[in-house]
Amino acid sequence: MGLTMTPQKFWELAGSHQTSTYGFDFATFMRAYENIAPSGVMYGALGSGAWDGLGIRVVELQCHRDAIPAGAGEIMMYAQTIAGFAALPTAGDALVLISTSPNDDLGNTGAEYVRVEYIDGQGAEQHVDVEMNGAANVPTGITIPNPVGSFAVNGLKVVQAGAVSTNVGDITLEDVTNTRVYEAIQAGMGRSQTCRYHVPVGKRAFVFRLECAAEVEDVVYGLFAHRQYDYVANERILCREAYVALPESGRWEHIFSDPVSVPPTVAGEAPSSVSLLCLSVGGASEGTASVFMAVCDEE
After folding, report:
1. From its phi and psi, is residue 266 left (phi > 0), alpha (psi between -120 and 50) or beta?
2. Is the peptide bond preceding residue 145 cis, with omega within 30 degrees of 0?
């Protein structure tokens, strides 16, 4: 891989593996990196605090949706096609993972471990790797705090799988009663598809690029960057821009000459976020979209 393996890419690779089963550890990755990069490059880039030393990473939010609704805009996400989806966290919910396929199970052909990435009630980045058990609820160890504070789910991804190398069924993150779905991975996709991101405390996000496409010309995408002081009454919109998709599966791209800034989250308060909304005049249209952002240290 030579010089194409940058320190940031290396760290992303390390973070994409469920380490306890395969036996990889940080020292193993360090030795591997030192064999393909000049001496001292890794240490200089990481500093003493790994991600803190890197200071910046690029995040891509992506989604395909086969039934964009008519009327009020909804977040561009696969999970909203699943009955019971809940956009806002509900205090006291204990979260579980469940699949529509029994093959998403340790020792089977599908997803074996799934990582839940979230920010806690104080806005700190957290993740947990959960061993799947097919169509049965698996506790994640995450209970939404009361009050909710800054809690938000930022994504799911398969970090260990069997013979098919990804998930076989739809995997959902739900409450224990299976009445509210917080996030989902579509069958075969390996990661959640949600064009929404909540900014952790101490970070600031800058949206610099948007790609979108649709099968008909009536699909509209709207990019929102905002900080919510209150979920209902006192939302302050910092940026709102709408984009009309090109007709007949046309693709549209926009690069922001002045990146859209999403401010830091205040600990214990509803998090700052960026989201891409979609709607179709006729309803049930098909579309895809990606949002690219840089997530940086606040200082």
Report:
1. beta
2. no
- Residue 109, in any domain of the structure: yes
Q: Which domain holds residue 32?
A: 2-50
69 and 213 both lie in a single domain: yes
Name which of 113, 93, 293 is nearest 200 in CA terms. 293
**CB atoms < 10 A from the CB of 182, how many?**
25
pTM over 0.90: no
pLDDT digits 0-9 by tens, 81-126: 888 888 789 999 999 999 999 999 999 999 999 999 999 999 999 9
Each residue of 26-47: b (16+ CB within 10 Å) or e? eeebeebbeeebeeebbeebbe
User: 164 and 219 share a domain?
Assistant: no
Contact 157, 191 (CB under 8 A): yes
Whether 172 is covered by a domain: the verdict is yes
pLDDT (tens digit, 9 = 90+) per residue, 124-168? 999 999 999 999 999 999 999 999 999 999 999 999 999 999 999
The two structure tokens encoding residue 34: 């030192």
CATH number at residue 203: 2.60.120
Q: List the structure tokens of 23.
A: 């036996």
- Percentage of residues in the chain having pLDDT higher than 90: 52
Is residue 181, in this structure, part of any structural domain at all?
Answer: yes
Distance (Å, whole) CA 231 – CA 206: 22
214 and 246 assigned to the same domain: yes
Tokens coding 87: 């956009």
Number of folded domains that form the chain: 3
In this structure, is residue 190 part of a structural domain? no
Task: With CA atoms as reference, report the closest residue to 262 among 291, 224, 289.
Answer: 224
Q: For 16, list phi and psi in degrees, rounded to 5.
A: -90, 0
**Between 290 and 227, where is the model more confident?**
290
